[in-house]
Each structure stands twice: as structure tokens, then as C-alpha cells.
Amino acid sequence: MPVVHESGEIRRLGNELTAIPGIRAIFVFALVLGALSASYAIFEARDFDADGPQYLIMAMMRGGLYFGEPARVSVQFLQQFFSFVAYRLGGTDLLTYGRLMTLGMQGWPLLLTALAWFVLPRGQKPWILGPLLNIAVVIPTTSFMGIGEGTIASCLMWLLYFLVEFRMKSVFTGVITLALAVGCFYLHESAFLFMLGISLLSFSRAREARGVAFLFYVLVGIAALASSIHLFYFVVFPRDSSERGAFLIGLLVEFLVTPQGPGFNLPTVAALFFGACLFLVHFPRHLSDEQRQRRVIAACKVAGVIFALIAVLFLVLPEWVIIPHAYFAARGLPVIMTTLMAGMTHFMLRTGWTADRLVPARIRILLIAIISLQLLVQTVMTQHWTSYRRDLAELVATHQGVIDWNTASEALNPHKTFFRRHLIRAWSVEPLSIVLAPNSHVLSLVDARPGIKWRAFDPLDPGSLPLCAKGLDWSQYLRAIGETSFDVKTDCQVRR
């Protein structure tokens, strides 16, 4: 048989294995850069976008917490945990509440992912690769819409999987795992398959366990099965039937390309190119290792060019490439991808694979590049969200009464950019204009877009307005619209 000689480039690839940082170092790098971008987003209250202001308003009317999605109560509690503490301590500044809500939405994924490292046993630390790919590649596809519960849910899923896979050998870890499995009863409806898998894994391990470990495996299996059935109920019978169709359409099409623009979710484009390179490391199997390495080298070069192009676009044309709707449409990706990656991790463990084998040197270089790209992308998005938030705050501070949507659109989007167009057209511009009232004194609010399917409030009907929300003073707004029959202080006391 002829001898196949490696090319010089292939040999250099082998030499790089000792020079390129390993999974542990890249994991720390991702957490540090993630913390930097999250800190900026928290300071600017970035997760005041989308449903965030509406959740805050409703929480201010209901004792500091609002659970808008019955299948996601556990995650929504974490999202609102810090703002709830502020509520109980008597805080009233709504911008501070926005920062604390953003802390919940941006901070928990990083904290839970860091905890996953400590859950893994010493000899299994490289399997942190799954949570690493989640925060570095998957979550950025939807992170601009932090209110989407899938980001935190996916990190809780990794913790639960690692506990069941590696750690249920004592009463302490058994109790923690059982508590987490019970908490996942209200995790996220799209996690029903994951919870079914956890149930099967637990029952399978129970067959090999003895004593207390056997008991906890059985209890976790029962809790996970109950959670799966409960979450599946909300898939079949969602809170809002229209949400089911929107969720599926978002995952099938709009997570990447949105017709409301048009526009591409560029972090998703980057994630897809990274995924393609990762796939080519191991497939197709009929090719030789050398042939696959050649393909990986070529694919990584293409991906590097794509990453550079995305970076340039975000720097040069940010308001034309940041498409908020695409980030919202991708909100289910972290849960779905975590389900797939956790399943693959389990089967690879069974067949003797190691995590290091999955990410050779070229892929690790690409992973470092995509983590760096995400820092740039998130920073630019926060900058432009801040500009929009300040312009809207100035608009409501300089007007009285109801601001017509067309008037607001002309003032807030004079250059007709895609970024602001998507934000202004959404129903959430109305509650956002309320929480941005100067010093919490509501002078005006922006009416929802004409013809929109759903609106949070009727600006001319005091009965529909959140007049009893803690921290808001509506007296000047009510006078501006000619409403004198509603005494906010007295009527709110009666309502309570």
C-alpha cells in the first residue's frame, strides 16, 4: 500500500497542540470576557428591552415579583431575584430596578456555568466543554433579549445533568440534585425532552446503585419524569396559543433571518460556521484523518474571514446589522442545544471519548476567536441600546400626555435604521416609555403602533394603566389627558 505523507501544514497542526490553550484556560477566558460584557450591559440596564419593562411594571404592582409564563416560574424567579430584594428593601428608582433585572438575566448564566466546573469531578473537568460552548456560542444568539428564559434554563440544565451523571454518591449531593430536579418542574416548556432524558438516566443508574444512592436516583427519576410531563402539558396547551406558532417559526426560520428587516442574526451566523468546523473534525467518517484535517483547516480559515467580516459590520454599520427580532426568535436555542449537547456528552462518555479529542488545536483557536468576537458584538449592542434608551427617556421627559406613535417614530428613528425600527415597532415601546419617566414622575407615554395585535395599556383609559405600580407618580400625566376622577393615592389603597 502507498504511504501517505502528511503535509507541512498538517504537521504544524500537531505541533500547535502543545501551544494552544486547553479547555480549562479557554473556559476561564470565556467567563472573564462574559463578565466584562455583562457588567456593561448591567450598568446600562440593557434588559429593559423586550418584555422587561412590562415584567417590571407588573412586579411593582404585585409585591415585587411577576410570573408571566406559568411553565417558567423557577427561571423567572431567578431573573427577578435581585430586583425583588430591592423591592423588599424599599427601593423606588426604576432605572436601578432595570439594572438589577439585567443583573439577574446576565449574571445567572455566568454564575451557574462557573458552578458547573465545581460539580464536575477532577478527572472529568474537560467536559466543561458543553457549558463553555453554551455561553460562548449558543447564548449569544439570543442574549440581546435577556428576558428570554432559555439562557438561565440551559445553565440549570447543565448543572442537573452533571449532578446526575457524576455526583450522586452521597446524601449531600443527592439532596441538592433532588431539589434541583423538583425546581425544574417550572423550568421551561421546551425542556420536556431533557427532563425525560434525566429521568431515564436516573432510573438507569438506580439499577446499579445501592443504599442511599439508590433511593436518591429513584426520587430524582420520579421528579424528572413528573417535570417532563408537566412541561409537555404547556407545549400542548401553552398560555397563549399564538406563542406556540411564533416559537416554532422563530426556531425554524427567524432565529437566523427575519422578514421584519430584512436582516441576519450575525452571532448565529458565527455559531453556525463554528459548528460546521467542529463537525468536520470528525465527519464524514469515510474520509481519512488527514483528509478531514485538510477540510478543517480550510473551514477554519473561512470561518475566520466570516468572524472578521461580522466584526467590521458591527463596528461600521451597527444599526443596520443589529436585528432585535432575530434575537427574540432565537430564545429557545439554548434549551434545545443544551438538550442535544448533554445527550451527546452522555453517549460519548459511554463510548470512551474524551472532551479534548473533540476540540483539536484549530478548533480551540476558532473558539477563542468567537469568544473575542462576542465581546465586541455585545459591547456594540449595549452602546446602541443605551443611545436608544436615552433618546426615549428624553422624549417622554419633554412631552405631556400621549405621544402619537408616528411622532415618536420620527423623533427616535430619524435615520430609518433597522435596529431602532424593530424596537419602536414592538409593543414594548409603550411600557418602556413608562419606566423611563423622569424621576419616576410619568409626564407622557408613547402610544403603541397603530394596528398592532396586542398592546399593554390604553393610554387614555386610567383603568388599564398601571397607576398603582410602586415608585410611579401618575398625577401629572392624568392631568395632561384631562382625567380628574381618579385619585391615585386613595384608589390604590382601596385596591390593595
Which key phrases capture this entry?
globular, 23 helices, mainly alpha, two-stranded antiparallel sheet, 496 residues, 2 domains, two-stranded parallel ribbon, 4 strands
In short:
The protein is 66% helix and 2% strand.
Give a verbal description of the structure.
The protein is mainly α. It folds into two domains: 25-383, no CATH class; 387-495, no CATH class. The chain is built from 23 helices and four strands. The chain has helices at 8-16, 23-43, 52-61, 73-88, 94-119, 129-138, 150-167, 171-183, 192-206, 211-236, 241-254, 266-282, 289-316, 318-321, 324-329, 333-350, 355-358, 361-397, 405-412, 418-425, 429-435, 475-480, 488-495; strands at 257-258, 263-264, 401-403, 444-446. The strands form two sheets. It has a two-stranded antiparallel sheet. Strands 3-4 form a two-stranded parallel sheet. α7 (150-167) packs antiparallel against α8 (171-183) and α7 (150-167) runs parallel beside α9 (192-206). The longest helix is centred in the last third of the chain and has 37 residues, at 361-397. The protein is globular, with a radius of gyration of 25 Å. Residues 1-6 have low confidence and may be disordered.
